[in-house]
User: Fold these one by one.
Assistant:
Number 1:
Amino acid sequence: MNTRKGIGYHENNISDPAKVVSRDTLRLQHIDQGTTDGIQRLFPVTEDEKERRDALHFSVMPYIKRCIEGENAYGGKALSLLITREERVTPSGLKILAGTTSCLKNFKFFRDKPYPLNDNTSLKEAILCSDHFQSIYTQLLCGFYQRHDVTHVKSVFASSLVSVIHFLKRHYSELCSDISSGSLSPKITDPSLRGRMIETFMQNPDPELAKFIQVTCSDENWEGIYRKIWPNIKYLDAISTGSMAQYILLLKYYTGGLPLLSTKYSASECDLGFNLNPMCDPYDVSYTIMPNMSYYEFLPLDSSHFTSSDPKPLTVEMADVEVGKEYEVVVTNFCGLYRYRIGDVLSPTRFFNSTPQFKFIRRKNVVLTIDICKLTEMELQKGIDSVSSLLGQLDIIVVEYTSYANVKDGPGHCVIYMELMVMSQANWPKPEVLEQCCQAMEGSLGQLYFSTRVSGFIGPLEIRLVENGTFEKLRDYAISKGVSFTQYKVPRCVKALDLLELLNSGVVSIHFSSSFPTSGP
Ligand code: AMP
């Protein structure tokens, strides 16, 4: 392929995969469903691709596991918090699976005898149960019964490791009553899951374990809760880069500072790369792109690659990317995607032999536009970081956030919906502190925001605090619309009216910046 020519891209618009590839020529196996940005897209997956992903996973993961655990592998089990979604079928009879569900259902994960990398506490039936309450509930029970065997916690995205703690907060009494009586809650109705749970774990009451969990969870202080319940945990394995960086602080709190490892960069479209230095700081992760998985091109984000004679953008080959620049990744894969823009922005940090290693920068299209000012996901995250460092002095953690461009009245302004975790109610932030947060955020949103705001084209930034659990309602709403629990990512900018209504129904207080930011970034 001549990558130097202008190209016509598919812009995430494949609605009927049968139009893109012939089922027979490609041995089409099923269709993956991606969920990023809250839009569900379908991607064809062939039999060969399935095997290729399988082979890659099982060749790279042992290397990564060795980097983590060294010569003396911990040998314990993973507390795997993995949840699958129900399959759907296209009119032509092809299965539609969420990306993570297809990994779990199709790949070696469940096919062969227990594989050392997949030795996890959860019963297969618990992972494969598509009702997420029943799945999480029973996976927690499985984890409690094997609590001394757990050496690490694993999920796809860091957000799930936070969600599961919120779930535990709400349901620990119910879980303890099951353990102490040795009888499973009637809410677990999936027959094969129920049968296997009773047969494997719930033959006898275990009042001692129940008492331990009850006492641990009824303590108001949940700092290090993961380690209190599973005392042999050495690390957490879940993606914490990009929009997941938001959860790093919270997970540090819930684990008492255990290492948080981001090992893999993948999408429903294709697997992209691995972190070959898994023990690095979560803020320093770079992924080595796997050149055998797809054909990758890189679209520079600076404008020098657009010429007047050829206004279409020119891509750069993998070997020609330059460290420090930003590129959008373009994929041609074995399943029929041709020069497809995934929408992720990456920046090379160094080379591993001649293969570049990339830092995940942001989703390309997450922008909040007010007047001429466009805020990226990264700029919003910087703003939230400045709020976090102010509130951190009061032992308060920003649990979740999203944004909205209110351009209805006056000069438009930026609205930030925020959920907080306050360790002690006495420390609940006073209105003047939240006003300072608005100002701190405005001071970190970039030069363009600063100048537009100072010249009055943007109004004062507004923070709307929402009650605890509002973002979980947002997630549950997305799941009810068909999004996979495991793949769900909080949208960092909200436009849809139904989502705004849901967020507004949880607002407990509203705060505005009371003056212009005093200094630019
Ligand atoms: P999905 O559309 O649900 O398949 O999710 C794929 C998207 O999740 C990617 O395009 C990225 O935006 C994001 N993602 C996946 N892996 C990572 C990672 N390691 N770091 C940051 N973002 C990631």
Note: The longest strand covers residues 340-352.
Number 2:
Amino acid sequence: MLNIVIFGAPGSGKGTQSERIVAKYGINHISTGDVLRAEIKAGTELGVTAKGYIDQGQLLPDELIIDILANTLDSFKESKGVIFDGFPRTIAQAEALKKMLAERGQEVSIMLDLDVPEDELMTRLIKRGLESGRADDNEETIKKRLVVYHSQTAPLIEWYKNDGKYQHIHGSGTMEGIFAEIAEAIDKI
Ligand code: AMP
């Protein structure tokens, strides 16, 4: 089983690189952000709750997101592994993921940290907002998301280093170059 955590600040390229990993390694993909956006589009109760947090650039409560993750994980049958994109985002979520996988006799194989300079993140996200119309890709909300990233999510770098799963990836450069570094790290597992 290949269980990959793809990690990085908003705009670091997690979604783009996840697509390439899925295509090469044939594993399932969970993007908690995509799940939430689908709920918002469908107008569900969860979607209404999620929108309140997303529009403010804040994280959803851990219990809620851990529940969503567990349900999605259970829906994968005969899976070769999973890429976790946008999850975990807090230490509590990382601990929950570790427990969830252990209960299934599995573990995280590697955590890939897509490292991109802050000014480049901002430029990329503003561009994405113009192209995709994502409501949280506006300058004010991006700034809040980056603050949340530094305070609540970045501590996971140390957490995964201590867990022996951390792998740094140079997240700026060409998409192909970044993917080559990722594939090299995965092939070494
Ligand atoms: P993303 O598409 O991964 O950038 O996520 C968009 C937004 O969804 C985030 O800014 C959060 O509001 C929410 N979200 C996504 N994943 C999580 C998570 N693991 N924990 C809490 N909130 C999340």
Note: The domain at 2-187 is CATH 3.40.50.300 (Rossmann fold).
